[in-house]
Design goal:
Two copies of one chain form a homodimer. With about 200 residues, chain A is mainly α. Chain A folds into two domains: about 50 residues, Homeodomain-like (Arc Repressor Mutant, subunit A, Orthogonal Bundle); about 120 residues, Tetracycline Repressor, domain 2 (Orthogonal Bundle). Chain A has nine helices and no strands. At the A-B interface, helix 6, helix 7, helix 8 and helix 9 of A face helix 6, helix 7, helix 8 and helix 9 of B. Chains A, B: Pfam families: TetR_C_11 (PF16859), TetR_N (PF00440). Chains A, B: One of its GO terms (molecular function) is DNA-binding transcription factor activity. Chains A, B: Keywords: DNA-binding, Transcription, Transcription regulation.
């Protein structure tokens, strides 16, 4: 067993970068079944003991891929209208779900194999929806939509049709999908859907 | 190699029933990795040659589970209002996605492993959404919603938040989720969302 010397931060960050890039490449190219400490270590030239000590197993590697993705400074676009903000958000989701290489769909597929990946993906999305709450606050501030509109409920309504169509129903990518779901949700919000504690009029 | 004698219809249907029940049990109890022609044959007492000849592989078994499920005479409830019809539908989806044993979520997970299962699940859902189009036609007939409302777009808006929250985001089951998503979608439809070819007012 090697007894690795402690590395300075830059070297450690570089190792993490190489390992996580290798995880994504292996996952996209060979699927979850092609992922292992050994294949990742071999493909990025980092000693398997280093990978094992820091990430332990495939679940740890996948969780760190998502933790790193969550560590960015992404913020939703501020276009000046609810329609515009939701359309911009949905176009980003659409691009992620139809991207090549299909990193996002590969991570979603992996979340059905690894409880740690599932938990990391849940945390990633929770943080993304939290960051998007400002879209709803801005729209309420402009009186586009009623005060008391539930941000997460609105944001899930806008984005869920994309995940449903592209990931579960596996319909072919339809260019208008992102904008339609955004516009439909904006109509709903202006009409008073998504308001907490209010039962809609029948 | 056995040369099986051709069985009458009743016996053949009985074999199919036993095999498909065993597929579902194996899938729920042991996951996709626990599924094989051998484990299924052994668990239901049907000769493995019979299973192999009729279903060929795990993909064929899963596709037939979904084909059999699609062969029922299910129709959406007719409650007299769009809100009621969507709430009834969403409660059925919610029950399926939170059911114990978790058959639906196990089939969704399997669809990420097997292209045949993915295609069968896609066909199953396409048929279900087709059957539900009558909900939208009835609402338009009662002038609850505009003529030209796109049935699939409305139905996906109503149901997608349930799949997103329960299957992908893996939030805990929230009793109000089904009714809220139904009511939000009915508000949207009455306000003119989901109308084909119309860009919503900004």
């Amino acid at each position: 067993m090697n007894r690795p010397i402690r590395r300075p931060g830059g070297r450690s960050a570089d190792v993490r970068r190489r390992v996580l890039d290798a995880v994504v490449t292996q996952l996209v190219d060979h699927g979850y079944d092609g992922l292992s400490i050994d294949t990742v270590a071999a493909s990025c030239g980092v000693h398997r003991t280093t990978v094992y000590r820091r990430w332990r197993d495939v679940g740890g590697l996948l969780a760190d891929v998502l933790a790193e993705a969550a560590g960015d400074d992404w913020r939703p676009a501020d276009t000046g209208t609810l329609d515009g903000d939701l359309a911009a958000l949905n176009r980003e989701v659409f691009a992620a779900l139809t991207g090549d290489p299909p990193i996002t769909t590969a991570l979603i597929a992996a979340s059905f194999r690894s409880a740690r990946a599932a938990e990391a993906l849940r945390a990633f999305w929770a943080d993304r929806y939290d960051r998007c709450a400002v879209i709803v606050a801005r729209a309420a501030g402009r009186s586009e939509i009623p005060a008391g509109t539930d941000a997460r409920r609105l944001l899930v309504a806008a984005t869920a049709p994309l995940y449903h169509e592209l990931v579960l129903l596996r319909t072919g990518p339809d260019e208008g999908l992102a904008d339609r779901a955004a516009a439909d949700t904006a109509v709903a919000a202006r009409a008073g859907a998504f308001v907490t504690g209010v039962v809609s009029p029948g």
